[in-house]
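RECORD TYPE: protein structure
NAME: CIB1 protein
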Amino acid sequence: AYKRFSELLPKEERENACSARVPKGQILTLPELRANPFQHRICRVFSTSDSGDDSMSFEDFLDMLSVFSDSATSDIKSHYAFRIFDFDDDGTLDKKDLEKLVNCLTGQGEESRLSDTEMEQLIQNILEESDIDKDGTINLSEFQHVVSRSPDFTSSFKIVL
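PREDICTED:
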């Protein structure tokens, strides 16, 4: 992990990789993130940068690797998946978050975009299945409940670095 992290830094900064921050643009060059539809959200969630530039320290990088590793628990994976899918960082998945989630998964092209009616129906179906307290949003515990019933979730939520 240290080798992968330090290789993202300019040569002159590699000696001090433990105290350096890798810019988001460099993190996004990782082959495993390059094609990931949630690449920007992943950087946002794992970055501890005070400046909001989504750069990563070595600790941030290790946190990301550990969450996406095979040995991470389903609870840890679902917690971070929830944070990645919570686009407005308000602690719930509302209709806007779900729409962005669906668009990320289906692609942004005209041929793959759902119609307004299809999107509304899909979001309604997701909420009917997941929104246990019927408040129109999905909170972390509701999300984890749904994930616990999906054994494929853990294996599909990983990046091999």
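COMMENT: The chain has two domains: 1-68, 74-157.
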